[in-house]
Amino acid sequence: MKLNNRTFILLTTLVSMLFGYSTMFAAEGEATLDKVMKFMLVVTIVMIAFVLWLIIVYSEKEDSEGKTFKAPLIALRKYLTYSTPIEKEQEILLSHNYDGIRELDNRIPPWFKMLFYGTIIWAAIYMLAYHVLDDGQVQSKEYKVEIEKAKLERDFLIRTGAFINEETVVFVNDPAELSEGKEIYFKNCATCHGQNGGGLVGPNLTDDYWIHGGGIKNIFKVIKYGVPAKGMISWETQLDPKKMQAAASYILTMHGTNPPNGKAAEGEKWIEPDDNKISSTKGS
Amino acid sequence: MNVDKFSYDNQVVKLFTIATVVWGIVGMLVGLIIAIQLYLPELNFGIPYLTFGRIRPLHTNAVIFAFVGNLIFAGIYYSLQRLCKARMWNDSLSQFHFWGWQTIIVLATITLPMGFTTSKEYAELEWPIDILIALVWLAFGANMLGTIIKRREKHMYVAIWFYIATFVTVTVLHVVNSLEIPAGLMKSYPIYAGVQDALVQWWYGHNAVAFFLTTPFLGLMYYFLPKAANRPVYSYRLSILHFWALIFLYIWAGPHHLLYSALPDWAQSLGTVFSIMLIAPSWGGMLNGLLTLRGAWDRVRDNPILKFMVVAVTAYGMATFEGPMLSLKNVNAIAHFTDWIIAHVHVGALGWNGMLSFGVLYWMVPKMWNTELYSKKMANAHFWIATLGIVFYAIPMYWSGIAQSLMWKQFTPLGILQYPNFLETTLQIIPFHIIRSFGGLLFLSGMFLMGHNLLKTVKQGKFVKNEDAEAPPLIKEDDKMKRGMIHRWLEKRPVQFSLLATVAILIGGVVEFIPTFVVKSNIPTIASVKPYTPLELQGRDIYIREGCNTCHSQLVRPFRSETERYGEYSKAGEYVYDHPFLWGSKRTGPDLHREGGKYSNLWHYLHFEDPLQMSPGSIMPPYPWLLTHTLDTSSTATKINALRSIGVPYEEGYEKFANQDLEKQANQIADDLINNGIPADWDKEVIALIAYIQRLGTDIKGNQAK
What we know:
The complex is a heterodimer.
Chain A: H1 5-26, H2 33-58, H3 67-81, E1 93-98, E2 101-104, H4 110-132, H5 138-160, H6 175-193, E3 209-210, H7 215-225, H8 241-253, E4 268-269
Antiparallel strand pairs in A: 1-2, 3-4
Chain B: E1 4-9, H1 11-37, H2 52-84, H3 91-114, H4 127-149, H5 158-177, E2 180-182, E3 188-190, H6 194-212, H7 215-229, H8 236-250, H9 265-277, H10 279-292, H11 297-302, H12 304-326, H13 329-335, H14 339-368, H15 376-409, H16 422-428, H17 430-460, E4 466-471, H18 486-490, H19 494-518, H20 534-545, H21 560-565, H22 601-609, H23 611-614, H24 625-628, H25 636-645, H26 658-675, H27 685-695
Antiparallel strand pairs in B: 1-4, 2-3
Helix pairs in contact in B: 1-2, 1-3, 1-17, 2-3, 2-7, 2-14, 3-4, 4-5, 5-6, 5-7, 5-8, 5-19, 6-19, 7-12, 7-14, 8-10, 8-19, 10-12, 12-14, 12-15, 14-15, 14-17, 15-16, 15-17, 20-27, 22-27, 26-27
């Protein structure tokens, strides 16, 4: 079978276009489902086109023994591998002989060349797309887009009240939420403030004295933003505000428990203002 | 026609063969130990020398340079003599090469556990050993080129092309990456800093894989596979195409280890596109290997050697497809820093290097001892154990890598990290790590089986120290370069060939390095970034000594999931005084680039004493010796001087006062600890390490340039 140059170029272009299309999302951090779907769509279309091509090329041949069915595949395989059969191997055996090792001179498989040239074209498109036609600030741009999107979502959540902040936080008395708060406390807080809130590395949370102010709002604030200078880390990026609310509420329930080996009081005595007494419940 | 009578030197091949098996067992055993340490940290027995951070480099160095390295030399010395129809050029050089190389390995096994390390992956050995490596490597090169030049075969076979490329490239890689300024007998700082150091290191690291684990093995494959299959090589012209394409393109691809890092975008993109272009040239090697077996597949069924080789070549094909895929930024965003990379590496290392090595050993040993393999059955058993070992190794690691990465990136509907506690993701993948170590155990058992089989083979045979051979001498002929025969012409000229190969491998490095080093805009400076204080510097060197960078990265990537977890993403300008860079390549623990100021000094103190105190379930080993060892401040002046000489702006004469500053800063930290109820001394190592950690990433806090 003679190598058909036009078909060769056609297929090479096809391969590189396929690669080229994938470039569009190849450089992006998190491929969205939408993009994956688009890509799958293109792959499907290409495959359908390929089957149609096979039908058009080979449908006219008459064959009652079912050879037609296999012929296109064999032809394609031959076209793609372009290899000399073993029986005719003597014709392409080179005179080389290295310690008994002989060498054949099979032609380089066309599919291999297509792959090679295809990737080179793809590489050129990639560099052009990001660094010549665009300004080359690939990752900082991607990052900005990701952050802006997240900010819009966050703003929406705050507006609808789903996202609690230090202004809207309230003490919750619900046993289920308090037990969640307890769980969070044990997992994240107890290493520094003690299992029973008596204080270890961090201060005692059960007494009347608070370094940064007591009450649900102040406690929520300290949890959220932390006090980096003193080693209290910020939990803003790690805990859902609902969880911080639950933890802060649980901490308030430990008030006055006076655990054994409690740390000495630090800070100022806290007097709860009337308008947000502990007794106020969620949603009130 | 007169015929030269000569002999092949089998002695040096024998020595390298023994070394291969012995170091292979040692290297893999260390690998098994560190694999188990990831779920049983107690396995370091509380001894500093056996901690993960120190012996993980020992494992990589041992398997790469001791196991694979010795096998390469055994295979090259065996095949080169026969392909050149000549004895090795100089027997004394061969001996020097062997004993020199073993000395390097012994020095590595001593110095790495002692904590003498440059921290640069696969180039951890300190400067005196670097010099020794250069000498021994040059001896090997001289011996090889000498043999090629006085060959009796007119042309150089494709295997020799790969050997030459290996030699010239590894020379360049080793020299450029090891340019460092000594600060004491076993301490040095690379002359490059930060981003530049990272670029040089991964140019080296990537091409160590390319030119130490790939090209010499392709050369070995081109000799041993057609030999074992008794079939002609499939395509000579494919050999030419894929050889030149491979060595030219490979060099460029290093930056794919630094995607989404502080490396300039254009360099990252080059890393990506050149990796993609590498698919075909790499597959050229696989094709030529597998298609050489055309018509011999029936023999594969009952010949264990061929079986090993088929799996090796297939694994090579898989790894060289996966590699380019991992270089796509969207795939890399998931895979980088996770176990996926460990899986990928081991498909290459166990599959390609391991299996081909076994095939070569099973082929060479009976030949040199003039006998048959003692037990084919045992070799077959080895094959299945090793294959199973790879499966049990790789599959859980893929799962583990993807699972952990997705957990890192998962947000709740409210837009908060779902798994804010890094440890949660670590604990999730422990079952996978247990299965992985079982896979490793299988592979190691295979090594023992092979050792036994080869030993029995040796016992039943008789070693042929000098194998007699004869060939007509090479007659010098001065032929012109002819159209269509250029490569054939080149194959007769080893010197020109080597020069051309050198040019081919230099281009990529030069194009990527020079702009990064010269063009200022590639690394925008940040005014608030200052050199480390003497105490922080000492702490940083402890960080390096303990190998913290093997498990902790210092590179926050520009993803929301990372900036939420760690803080502002890392900027190139922040690293300008980092000799060496410590970005790391694997996050077994969390990133530390924004660790400064996150926790109190006390937290760190207790955490170093025993991590379980602060994070229950942690797999980080305790470092109690940091609390008791006194910091060696006698080295401060030398270190300051060394760093100043490579561009860190310490004032002239500062070295005289550096220790006063050091003491002052250390006392502040000690006082803080004492205030919190810990009777700490200012002069302990842990104080310096805390100082360094508290400094990390704080330079740009407050003026977060975007």
